[in-house]
Fold each of these.
Amino acid sequence: MSPPGLPASFPWLSVLIFSPLAAAVVVAVLRRERAVRWWTLAATLAVAAAAVPVLVGFDPGTPAFQFVEDRPWIPPLGLRYTLGVDGLSLVLVLLTVGILPLCVLASWRYITTRVREFMIGLLVMETAMVGVFCALDFVLFFLFWEAMLIPMALLIGVWGGPRKVYAALKFFIYTMAGSVFLLAAIIALYRQAGTWDLRALMGRELPLAFQVWVFLAFFLSFAIKVPMVPFHTWLPAAHVEAPTAGSVILASVLLKMGTYGFLRLSLPITPDATRLLAPHLCWLSVAAIVYGGLTALAQSDLKKLVAYSSVGHMGFATLGIFTLTRAGIEGAVLQMINHGITTGALFICVGLLYERLHTRELAAAAGVGRQVPVFAGFFGVFALSSMAFPGTNSFIGEFLALAGAFQFSLPVALAAVPGVVLAAAYMLRMLQRVAYGGPQNPDHTGVGDLNLREVLTLAPLLGLVFWIGLQPGPLVRLFAASVGHLLEQTAAGAPPLAAAP
Amino acid sequence: MVNDLAVIGLELAVVFAGLGVLLADLWLPAARRPHLALVTAWVLGLILLASFGIEAEPVRTAFGGMYRLDALALFFKRFFLLAALLVTVVAREFREGFEAGHAEYHALTCFALAGMMLAASAQHFALLFVALELVTVTFYVLVSFPRRRVTALEAGVKYLILGALASAFLVFGIALVYAATGTLAFEALAGRLETFTGNRLVLAGLLLVGAGLGFKLAAVPFQIWAPDVYQGAPFPTTAFLSVGSKATGVVLLLRVLFEAVPSLTARSGPLLSVLAGLTMFYGVLGAIPQRSLRRLMGYSSIANAGFLLVGFATRSTEGVGAVLFYLAGYVFAVLLVFLVATLVWRGAEADEIATLGGLGRRAPALAASLTLGAASLAGIPPLAGFLGKFLLIRAAVLGGAENPALYWLAAITLVAAVVAIYYYFGLVRAVYWGEEAGSASVGPVSRSARAALVACAAGVLGLGVFPGPVLGWARLAARGLGL
């Protein structure tokens, strides 16, 4: 299974998962804040570097799981420590390990209290997130899934804004409630199929009624994470109160857990129920797209605006998934990656602005672009990317998702199209205000432009925006085989479409 | 006779340890008496170690079959020894709360422990009653140990009256069973039970016995005493009550239900499921508005009795194994909470959760320990508490094939587990986000307390991530019941 050129037994995935945890232990004994920051940055960069061999050794031609590790874990229960990646999980692992160093950089000045604990929180989050994407044993998956909960709630609740406790509690309760349904589904599946192994569960022929129940349980859990309307109300609160790095992790990776869950679990394990319920979920996605867009249009708080735009963007991802077409799902995966890059970048931008102006009000920030041209440039590109401007990354994803929707059902697709226009409206409104709007504001005099660290934080994301926007082929090839396999498993294989434009 | 004494060697060692502490107190100068706690802890630790030298196979009996040393008994004996060892460490930290009689406290802990260990081996209603009374009577003293505190005395009186009532139920029930069947030995009773099908006297007797044991377990409808007594008792006693005393109820209930009257248990219908559901909900709903830590732990203890009863209700080896594993995780989590609470309040009478405010800044390590304990009790993965609840729910779902009512029980357990998260989260919230409650820094943490904290934290984490060995013991012990 392991690709040639690498020692077959080397547990790359375990290294990826547990090296952040090991780094966190070191952080715990470091004395000086400066050392803590540099060490965490080095550790996250090293983890990102450790992902390179996985990427190089990964064979995109096969949908099978690669880098598989399989060891007994709790023999009396039949639980195994099983890891592996396919195209879908690989791209999300890469996104996770890539975004973490930027989170550290974005917290460099923003986090001033209890730096050590904050960095430990970030590293523990990284372990849990990579673990979710790599786990192939259902209980192991659930363990990592839940392990994200407390560090994230703490990141929001300790380093957040004025209403942090409320936001953290709301986040905690919502996601915990979802997890309970996930747990119930896991146990029910074990009861029915007698295995915890995800690979064995996929392609099991389960009775339809049972599938529907399991699908609904999955749905509740994942829809809260995505979040899909009407389960989204925790998201604005959490985003607004979270520190920049928390928002970035939340937007870039945590929201992907929901869509990843749909792709990894709902579609292959309960294919019949998925086909049965997909039309309803498409409409729910459309509702999210339109609702998110309209609400974002009405926001005066920059962070809230970006948060609601997330609801809309993730709506495109779920729409793509539940069209059950090749174009739709490939678009959805691209949209997941792109949303991670673009929205993460926008949250970093808002954080940078907040560090300078100590406000996130759109009105107060109006016209600041004159003082900080470099910032305005970055901000402009990311805003354009967020509204899916052709040539930027989001364009491809949304285009494919919509193309899938057109194949699936014309009314659904037509209903989703206004979402694109809405995205343009709220993003341009924000960009126009911040970069160009308003008269000279005396509060803005003396506001410094980006320094080298901040440019370095945003530059990789800028590069990715254009790279994926202009040449999505290599990225799509990574997961195209997995998507094809997924469609076979869901047994709704639409006539194959060109993999990527 | 000598053989019998060899079989009960562990209990004898514990009793002699208790007597030794009492005697040493007479000769030691006053200044050195506080060290007795450490000595007790060391001795209990050694006995715990020695217990691992005892083989469960072949099963040995003593006193004409009244006493049985099997895997189940050994599992519980080790559990009780561990609990008592940790309680002794808590008691040492609590010493400012006792005006006098440190040695007596530790000796009484040993005697209660001996009762619990004997109960774990009971194969006869006489031994059951004697062992249980040894535990209960000792606890009357332990609960009201700070004898000038009105709250402790009040708790002691409540425990005495309700405990005496429960004992009366128990002994009356035993008498009825004997009157009807003519035997008190479990094995003989199990053999004769078929001939007494439908006999009201036996049924009434067993229900009364169940009431007496339900009191120990703090299960609905015999749970009323728990919050009041927990709140009034000194911290180490509360900890011991919620771990040791409850587990005594568990092991005796296991023995009675599955060894003395297995055929009747198999026909008991949804009785155990209903009791489990009611107990869980009484506990979790009652815990929500609590402001006193011990009172909260009292309700939490009721809720946990409900969770344990889920395993009983499945009437399967899976379920009983889950119960045993749940208890193993429970002892570490509860002791973690009580250790931190004792270190923060140092024998003071107050235990308002709000006064934990700002602990996250004052004592980050203690705050983290408390969080770990509360999270395990709440059942957050990957801690021991999660795996325990997971195993219980799994057992219920697996049993659902034969008994569909268990599906409902599994669903109810899930809901109760979620509600439970809410009130444990309240603890964490107070620690990290509560109003700063005075800047009084927490005193230095002694080496023994630190070791106990580390051991408990390691237990909570280790049982969650690498549960293999303990789970193996739990299953081995559960298999002995022959379900």
Amino acid sequence: MKLLVCISKAPDTTSKISFTENNTKFNEAGVQYIINPYDEWYALVRALELKETLGGTVTTITVGKADNEPTIRKALAIGADDAVRIDAEASDALAVAKQIADYVKNNSYDIIFCGKETIDYNGSQVGGMIAELLDLSYVSLASKLEVNGNTATLERDIQGGKEVVETNIPFVVSCAKGMAEARIPNMRGIMAARTKPLQVLPGSEAPKLTEIVAYSLLPEKAGCKFIDAENPGELFQLLHNEAKVI
Amino acid sequence: MATDRFQAPDYYLLDDLLTDEQKLVRDTVRAWVKKEVSPIIEDYSQRAEFPKQLIGGLAEIGAFGPYIPQEYGGAGLDQISYGLIMQELERCDSGLRSTASVQSSLVMYPIWKYGNEEQKKKYLPKLATGEMIGCFGLTEPDHGSNPGGMVTHFKDAGSHYILNGAKMWITNAPIADIAVVWAKNEQGRIHGLVVERGMEGFTTPETHGKWSLRASATGELVFNNVKVPKENLLPNKSGLGAPLGCLDSARFGIAWGAIGAAMDCYDSSLRYSKERIQFEVPIASFQLTQKKLAEMITEITKAQFLTWRLGVLRNEGRATTAQISMAKRNNVHMALTIAREARQIHGAMGITGEYSLMRHMMNLESVITYEGTHDVHMLITGMDVTGISAFRNDGK
Ligand SMILES: Cc1cc2nc3c(=O)[nH]c(=O)nc-3n(C[C@H](O)[C@H](O)[C@H](O)COP(=O)(O)OP(=O)(O)OC[C@H]3O[C@@H](n4cnc5c(N)ncnc54)[C@H](O)[C@@H]3O)c2cc1C
């Protein structure tokens, strides 16, 4: 099986978030990047598990500039066989999906894995767009994936239960929690990653349909108010008069 | 212990000076420690037991001989990566780091540097995978800071050597499969011998009742007419310089390790002091608490740069014994001071196993003594700058 895993970088969850240029640009100064956890923990690891049981290869693909390479090397250290980087700005979801779809048109894959979303902009769009551009079926937010011959069975968590989906290979899937368990690379993997191929390809023409006009941060969390358990009336008063929710 | 919420301080953006691979190595060890070690270490330490089940994982993350070439099973990493691995291990527990330091720098290093090809092939790959655990026997009951005075000795008995004597305070002794033992020949010259568990007359009684490095096994090595095959003598270096060369490598790792322990104490103190309210305000708002925190981060930052530079020098083969000695003394003392201050910031909570401070503090009491005591390192720096040895005062 030829498996392709879409990998992007995201700010470490402990990063301090701020904006520049009149709140239109994310301030990258001092930010440490990690592999987007949904890509790493679920998409990549499930792809590796399938390779280990069914044979085949796992390739990662990243749309972005050279500053993505440390995270790509980590994906190789965890166990991907090779990596492709499309040297283009990841300007919006369609631009990214178009680059990946163009690459796949020339290099066919059985399953294309994405994370359910990136934890920076939480767009959750790229997987669906790739599927559309390639005219493939798409299963979003899957928490389980099994492959049997030419058919894949997937599970999705839905409100109050699960949905079981079947589709034929090839298809695109976005992976959510439950799909696999995070792996820590080992030293052999880190050493092997030094020499694994990382192919850099020029980007193709891609449309950019959206533009970010402004960012803003959530208001500071207000402190916690404690109310005596004997005094539900005060709780009611506060919810009504101060929080104005009832 | 509560969940490991550690966040590494990097006040002067030292990360910019590290390569992507060095950061990947460090982050890997950090992730492994958080997942596998932090949840259990306090319990093992309280029960004074070595968590043997971690040996496989330590090998997987490259903690055994990271700088040993790949042909002998090592990872072929540079010295800064080695240091960062030690930092992350000691961030959790000095005992864990001790196990890895001894295996790497005191067992694999002498076999790699002073052994012949057969010895390297026989031992190094198994030590790298943790299939074999080693220990290092230099200190004796009557010879600690003055190892050159050792009395453990061996005689040539034709087809083999006969080894007699005893070593004390030996990390990993009770769990070791092999021991690199330093002993004098009939001419009084110090040589390294590889003694294997199971050789007749060789025993390794465990040292009990330690209040420090409780999650690391310490013991004695007793040699009672042990027949050691001649091919077990390390042929390529002899004299006191041979064991001291290993100590250079181990002390370098300790200098990094101590930063890890200090970072953990600082990180915990910073979080606790912002969360703990007294007199209606977080204790972090008191100047006296801020002084402690400010001094901690200053000292950690200084130590990070001292040690990073030492790593560069070591990668270039230019670091001197005296430079390594300075970093070991400075950083361990820094970490111990920070552990004590951190314990105070945590008030009564600081004395419990809920927090790592008291464990770090007690562990560091060993670290400031082994591999050359704090004062002995002072004498090394003193001798280096003046050219006058102050080790003896009997005129000899
Ligand atoms: C937990 C633990 C693990 C250890 N693991 C190992 C191991 O794996 N292998 C190994 O070989 N050893 C090991 N050691 C031993 C350690 O290296 C020695 O304890 C250390 O070298 C000090 O020796 P000592 O304890 O005999 O102290 P001593 O040498 O007796 O020193 C006592 C005091 O006298 C001071 N002193 C000594 N000489 C001088 C001097 N010339 N001038 C001024 N002050 C001086 C010292 O600084 C110290 O304060 C370990 C020790 C501990 C605690």
Amino acid sequence: MTPISYFLVLSALLFAIGVLGVLIRRNVIVMLMSIELMLNAVNLAFIALGRQVGSIDGQVIVFFVITVAAAEAAVGLGIVIAVFRNRATVNADELNLLRW
Amino acid sequence: MGPLITFYALALLAIVSAAITAFSRNIVHSAFALFGALAGVAGIYVLLGADFLFIIQIFIYIGGILVVTIFAVMLTQGIADVNVSNRAVGVLPALVTAGVAGGVMFYAIIHSSWYHARPGSATPTTYWIGDAFLGPYVLPFEVASLVLLAALIGAIVISRQEVRE
């Protein structure tokens, strides 16, 4: 049986890659993809810890996280497409209309 | 030994694909590499005995979110557009932030004394998940359906073409 720390280290690595992706990329779509990576890492930790304590709650919460991720992807990408239609860019640095 | 080799293979797939997703300069490569990352994590779910979430991961993440993401990439960039703007900025602060976040997690994982789980055989989890949804989690379950409905309508309203008379 694989020790839990292996799964948690994998989860931490995926999360760190996601953080890096959000911080260094300026393309809004890649930033959204990196957020999906982070959500996946958290799901992995939830399932690993849930198995560790022998509880189903971890998996149920992952189900809700996936629900929120689906909603986030739908609305987020809808906003990206609407913004692209109006401004012809998906660069986060150029989306500064609300900045003064 | 077998599960460990499988774990390493799936972890390698997930990490490499995630790195390509986050660091590739070509956004189309990013979108397709996301497939590998999601599939690798789905395989890890099987190793952890979460059969239902494996299917859910395939259905919703790969079948839904990934396809929508690729649609967005195609709609906003244009396949033929060679000049795909996806350069990296602020690498140093980002490395520090991610390093601190990852380092704290590594420290916590390595220095915690995890007690050993009972090695049980892999049993279907659907019964217990369904039980939880109709028991202690019935209110979050209903709220989640409401959130999904609102997100669907919101996404349609936001991204539809504005018609002006």
Amino acid sequence: MTSLSVDLIASAILIGTIPRAMPILLAALGETLDQNAGILNLGVEGIMLMGAITAFTTEYFTENFVLAFIIAFAIGSLFSFFHAFASVSLKADQVVSGTALWFIGWGLSGVLYRFYFGNSPSPPVIQTLHHVSIPYLSNIPFIGRLIFGQDPIFYTVIMSLLFIHYFLFKTRIGLNLRTVGENPLVAKAVGVNPSLYRYLACMFGGGMAGLGGAYLVLTVVGSFFYDMTLGAGFIAVALVYFGKWKPLRVFVGSLLFGAVYVFYLTAETYFQYVPYQFIEMLPYLFTLIIILIAGTRAHSPASLGKPFHEE
Amino acid sequence: MIALNKEPLVKMVNITKRFSDVVANDSVDFELYESEIHALLGENGAGKSTLMNILYGLYHPDSGDIYFKDKKVNIRNPLEAQQLGIGMVHQHFMLIPTFTVLENLQVSGRGPFRLKPEEMIEKIKRISSELGITVDIDRKVHELSVGAKQRVEILRLIMNRAKILILDEPTSTLTPQEVVGLFNNLKKLRENGNSIVLITHKMYEVYEVADRVTVLRKGRVVLKSLKVKVQPKDLADAMLGQQREVKPHDRPEVSNPALMRLESLTVLDDEGEEAVRNANLHVAGGEIVGVAGVAGNGQKELVEAIYGLRPSLSGKIFLGVNDITRAKIRDRIENGLGYIPEDRKIRGVALDLSLDLNSIATDHWSKPIINYNFIDYQKVKEFASKIISTFGVITRSNQSKASTLSGGNLQKFIVGRELIKEPKFIIAENPTAGLDVGATEYVRQTLISYRNRGRAILVVSNDLDELLELCDKIVVMYKGRLTAPIPRGKFDKLEIGSLMLGKEAETA
């Protein structure tokens, strides 16, 4: 391999990391909030696909990307409402209900695509969002373009990242939410309604996963194809563990993952003597490794995945 | 300090509460005055906690009325109790262990959106210096001692403007020194105008701190008095009724070699820290050795290492003459080891399985119950029936799930299962925690008669009084180290208490 190709891979990673990281970050942030309230939602993958198909359809027919994002958020919340109903009200096993959600989203997104766009060999394409350069700041050498030359949603995501961090650690409602995830009885004793917190956290988390799917379609890919998330939803769940339930750490994890993903996309071209199947494994191998490293020492919220039985 | 002509702050009249066929409170009257410490005294299961849970809104009385400042009130839940200024410190603390003290105090259903830590810290400091209740604001709760956690709970109640504080057996897991500190705090609170209900089964606490006492026995009020007017003998008679205290048991002289012996045992905890350090211990046939200590000083890891649930880093464990340090649990059991775990619903039984199946939990490999790897259910049934009848377990049938048994019956069942095969050595971990007086007495007597048959017992308990009553020797565990054994004749509660707090002592 020439030094030129190393440079190319390196610059591809620098430029490509953030767009690739954003969908997973959105979903992982939602799951972070969700799990801090004690709800484990394994259906993120299915919800992302539902967000992707609804955003794509909306954009294709209305060319209104704001509406597309709103509808993707709404469909994600609706899906997660069922998860909340099963795990909070019915006190069902959250793994089972989350898995059901994944299957439904997976299948239904494919069915909806066929319904609207038929079975054409080349999928319809939409215009992805333009990048917005922030004046002056984007002229800073090297990092200027990287940080201040992204699409408009990127800035919204970063702001929501900061807000979720602020919310969880600097506000009373955020502290109450974490208390619900640790011990709902304690929360109840001070006048907090654990079920309400869990419903809202779960629906917000689902909405964020829907946004993640929408981001993938509207700004990264520009099209929809069946099973296009390729496990991003599960990786988002894994990043929550890697991030130890803290938004800023989850952000770091998502950048790492984005970098690995871009490396895999570009490396296929350059490492021709390595079977591409092995290179395709990279993102998942990476996920496995970070979970093995982070998972052994992680202390999850004490009531994560446990229904709240009032006595 | 007490004005007799004052009207009571809280009046509970004719309270009756039944749980299925058990009458927990039978026409109970209870009055609490302003600025007093009121001891609610009685044996375990006398109905003290039930009465206070009614006042706190956790239970609803079947009949009877509650008056607050002469107005009839209907307290439907703890929130309504809190609005009246009634707060309760439970035996299980309502704190989040992974949060700091500050965070725990900030959790609240009301208030502005944004947290204001500076204001909160100032408020905590003001109240804690006024009342002399010291807390370490930035520490995580799981790093605190039991006494410190209790102070956080009390402080939280005061900060939420509680005027009436109910403390449920607050001294049961404290060291004697911590008890003194708690009582000083309570006296300060009384001066401050608070009223305190102290639920307890320890008579001396009445004389140490209370202004007034109400004694319950079997759900009825048997005595009410200002403490100055009541003699200790009358108090004891009221509390215990005809039942006389069980005298410390005479026992045969021990000269047997050790049935269980630890040699420089070191064990790591889940975090990889040394939880048991270089422990030496010697338990001979015919004796009960107690391990005293504040919870979290390595007792759990010690027990798990002896039973084989946790590997030992170094040192040796002997059962009789056999070195079992590396043995599998099954081999240990076959060598005569028994275990009565603390979490009876988690480690003791499988809650959703029948008593039949639970009876073979710790021996599902030997004949005649198991034949060539097949279970002989007829034999299982006979075995379970034998445990149930020998140990007086009350259950509808052998097929009932373990979860249907009351705490006391479940414990009798587990004790029975472990003892029926007469192992030579048994570990009992908080064997009477949460049991009523009858079951407690039964379990203790069972352990004593087992000892009298020449077996050896190691009791690990957070309740020092239990150890003082039950044991022939006590060792104290502090930060993973064991002290030299203290023989029964030299038991000194204060001395043991200061060892529990880490006073230097000769290590064994």
